[in-house]
Write a structure and sequence with these properties.
Length: 224
């Protein structure tokens, strides 16, 4: 697939279908409506499929789509974890706070159904990996297991927690994890590069909509 405006040149006007916009003041929206607005406009979002263990060794597995990379020196990633509907901490955050470790397992198209199943609010202490039928395999540097069926695993140690908000609905905690080991699907990793087509990444859209990667194109950054 080629770029959408292949004949464009610097200083030329870009064709766009956008002619009118609706302006929305976040202060005028209920928290839930604001969440849906953000959730459906910041798209597509990668999904962190996070495995943790409780201090007693019980496995927890849950997906989070407010997730991305942070830095490469040190190698870090982040995930934003909101509280449950009743205001209490989600099991993932509780476990990370107490054990300081977690694993981010990549979300691929073939994992869509079990991944979304693990998003349900199971009681604390329930092993979602066992409930979903996914296969736990031992990590090397951290205690939480990896999901064998996932194409990429990031073994992480807690780098920093950043609370955002006052703890009321809509607040969140940004978890920054330092990547201490990476495992990549061998078929996707060749000559030091990753072929995203072999990862078949699953992304989150608004509401209950998800998407894979369709056609792609390449554009080199020119010299200014």
């Amino acid at each position: 697939m080629s770029a959408s405006n292949p004949t464009w040149r610097p200083n030329e006007k870009t064709n766009s279908p956008v002619h009118e916009q609706v302006t929305i003041d976040p202060a005028t929206l209920p928290v839930r409506d604001l969440y849906h607005l953000i959730n459906s406009t910041i798209i597509p979002r990668p999904i962190a499929f996070i495995s943790t263990v409780s201090p007693t060794g019980v496995v927890n597995l849950a997906p989070f789509s407010f997730f991305n990379g942070v830095s490469s020196n040190p190698p870090c990633l982040m995930v934003s974890i909101a509280p449950k509907a009743d205001g209490t901490k989600k099991d993932t955050l509780r476990n990370i706070e107490e054990t300081k470790q977690f694993v981010v397992n990549s979300a691929s198209m073939w994992l869509a159904e079990p991944l979304v199943y693990c998003a349900a609010e199971f009681a604390y202490g329930v092993d979602e990996m066992a409930q979903s039928g996914l296969t736990p395999i031992a990590s090397v540097k951290v205690k939480p297991p990896r999901v064998q069926e996932a194409a990429v695993h990031f073994e992480c140690e807690l780098y920093k927690l950043i609370p955002v908000g006052d703890g009321s609905p809509g607040s969140s905690t940004i978890v920054i994890g330092k990547i201490v080991l990476v495992h990549v699907h061998a078929k996707a990793y060749q000559n030091g590069r990753v072929d995203f087509r072999e990862l078949a990444p699953l992304s989150r859209l608004g509401g209950i909509s998800y998407a894979g990667v369709g056609e792609s194109f390449e554009l080199k950054v020119p010299k200014a």
